[in-house]
Amino acid sequence: MKMKALVVHAVRAPKPGYEFDEFEKRTGIVRNGAMVWKDAVYGIEEVEVPQVGDDDVLIKVAACGVCGSDGHVHEKDKDGYINFAWLTRFPLIPGHEFCGEIVEKGKNVETFQVGDYVTAEEMQYCGHCEECRTYHFNQCSNLLEPGSTIPGGMAEYIKVNKKFVWSINDIVEAYGVDDGLELGALVEPTGIAYNGTIIKSGGIHPGTYGAVYGAGAIGLGCIALMRQAGMAKIFAFEVNEERQRMAKEFGADFVFNPVVLSKQDLTSREVIMEHTNGWGCDLQIEAAGKPDILYPQMSLSVAAGGSIVNIAHSPKNDAAPVNVAQMIWRNGRVTGSNGHAGDAIFKNVIGLIAAKRFDYRKLITGRYALDDAEQAIIDTQKASGGKNLIKMR
Length: 393
Ligand SMILES: [Zn+2]
Ligand SMILES: [Zn+2]
Hints:
There is one protein chain. This protein is of the alpha/beta class. It contains 13 helices and 15 strands. It has two domains: about 1-165 and about 360-390, Medium-chain alcohol dehydrogenases, catalytic domain (Quinone Oxidoreductase, Chain A, domain 1), CATH 3.90.180; about 190-335, NAD(P)-binding Rossmann-like Domain (Rossmann fold, 3-Layer(aba) Sandwich), CATH 3.40.50.720. It has helices at about 20-25, 70-75, 130-135, 170-185, 185-200, 215-230, 240-250, 260-265, 270-275, 290-300, 325-330, 345-355, 375-380, and strands at about 1-10, 35-50, 55-65, 95-105, 115-120, 155-160, 165, 210-215, 235, 255, 280-285, 300-310, 335, 365-370, 385-390. Helix 5 (about 185-200) crosses helix 6, helix 5 (about 185-200) packs across helix 12 (about 345-355) and helix 6 runs parallel beside helix 7. The relative contact order is 0.15. One zinc ion binds near residues 126, 140 and 141.
């Protein structure tokens, strides 16, 4: 049986000096895609529907969100290489934020039934490497990722191992099938926000102060979580007007445009200190991918015992100056947050969306047909609005 899918082809041309490790040689997966793949070409193709194995389910995809990372794969550097320095293998069906309905299952799948509404984790960890056995699933050294290294959700069907599948029946029950099968595609990106804001931050104490730099789909998710966790003052820094408006709607008390601030000779630190009586922020989240610009100010804005959590991947600027003296004096810490596996994140995010405490439908600002999937990716790179969804139903 055939299905329609967005398929990306790229030329494997390692830049001089790039050395493949054992995992890369064995699997054909590349750890740093920006060093190896060039001249990516996108097109809608007829391909085989995946064959389910004994432990797999076949999902008829209802919706698939576009992630910033899908955009980075689409971008090219001056030599035509993809602008995505992470795990990749081509040809590729993009998409790791999907949901749909189970239409077939393997003989070992007992906890899911045909007809269940489900989503799935992107971080498909092996469970037996040293990282996995020490519960660092997001750091798995054999990680597979739909949409990057195995076929993703920008297709009519996707096959997923039962280990990574989560029921969204509760969301569909709460919102109905039409909205539920859009909201299901938000579980993965909201899980990314949850990992940084709630887990890697060390938790949120109600009454504390937070700041989010970059109010894209992830940053907006962080703001909503900060609000629901009871933060007393929430700052958002964002250049795009629509995203500024959404940041307010999602729960930010103070929204600043950093470009306007700098024209006024003001810094993010100055406005944070002004509105917190010099205390600073207990939790700051980098969701903009501009660490080189943001970290000097963020490290000066840290509250006593405060945290800086880095979620955004910044393909170009991954080195950033930190005011170390201030971080020591304030007993501050900086931590990375990758992925969403473990720590009950998917379970809790599904519960949160289904509970209707906050209407996550507001996050969806663009809807595209599968035929227009490449356009959805291009539009996502314009960094305006919330989440773009590709819809198959
Ligand atoms: Zn993503
Ligand atoms: Zn592993």
